[in-house]
Sequence to fold (194 residues):
Amino acid sequence: MKIIFATGNENKMREIREIYSDLDYEILSMREANVDIDIVEDGKSFEENALIKARAVASAYGGEAIVFADDSGLEVDYLGGEPGIYSARYMGEDTSYDIKMKAIIDRLAGVCKEDRTARFVCAIAAVFPDGREVVKRGTVEGFIIDEIRGENGFGYDPFFYVDEYGCTTAEMTPEQKNAISHRGKALRMMKEEL
Fold:
């Protein structure tokens, strides 16, 4: 059985394959499954956007495969939940994460640790060949520090600090991050559906 994950992001694919390494599924990216479509993510929540992507890829593929799609991002409480569902497109799609993180750090200047709370959110949608749809949400709580630290991970990981580990998610090993991450939690919940 195949799982097609509606992404071209190799970092996500690596995480997914690590978390599902014990399953007997072939896990393909859109490119590997020869699905080349543009998807407009115009939902109002992580869950809606994940379903939009999963449905579009399932329709385009049209084969006997399970299609997964995720929508994930960072919610900073002090900023009213920004960047939220716009995390990847925050400040423009081609803006580097270093610039995005610096802008958020600047907006939080002078804000105490207790008010810098944030979470990573990941909604994963699955569309099964029989038409069944399932959505799961995983989160990890932390706070935003005022510096960029760590070489592991990607996106906003270098300034997202998790107290119980005493480091940013970019300073964790891949195994540590997968054990607590928003995507890891959502993928493990979805694993139960398989």
